[in-house]
Automatic annotation (TrEMBL):
Entry membrane topology: Multi-pass membrane protein
This protein's record includes keyword Transmembrane: yes
Pfam families on file: L_HMGIC_fpl
Localization: Membrane
Gene coding for it: Lhfpl2
Full protein name: LHPL2 protein
Amino acid sequence: MCHVIVTCRSMLWTLLSIVVAFAELIAFMSADWLIGKAKPSSSDDVDNRTGGTQEPYHPTLGIYGRCTRISHMQLSRRDTLCGPYAENFSEIASGFWQATAIFLAVGIMILCAVAFVSVFTMCVQSIMKKSIFNVCGLLQGIAGLFLILGLILYPAGWGCQKAISYCGPYASAYKLGDCSLGWAFYTAIGGTILTFICAVFSAQAEIATSSDKVQEEIEEGKNLICLL
């Protein structure tokens, strides 16, 4: 019989697991890993609202995507265009970034699988006599290691030609040159830290759902157990 067990700690772990998976996925897909040096506005870059020249813009570069400003042939304005610069995996700008993409993708897939499974932990608390919380916590720890490897390798690719075109000639491995780090990089770091917090907190979720009070309510014949 399925017993639906909801506790404060198990729900918090489930929510954190979902948030971490989405945060890492969004960061991976974003082009805002590197913010390039400012590109000066030309005389054609006129702000239609004020009539003045627009502020210099900063192109951004991600692991496989980029955002840049393009000019229209017949209109006195420019639009920002975002999309992948690499049509396939081999076209990613650096071998280090290819490795980063692999490690991050594997880590994110594990996190997404755990996030999916975590939703069902309210009803299923064990698999083959093993706590599903502990299994998920172990997987989150493994995913965190993949994410760390990816984030360590990513700065090694700052010396590639693509990064130099955005960050200037002084850019090299682990040196930003004229670039700065974008929100996607910091989000990936924050998500990695939260991944390990989730891995540790999964043990607390397991303790909460197997406590003596929960067992007492199961013995009383209750199918819905809510302990906040």
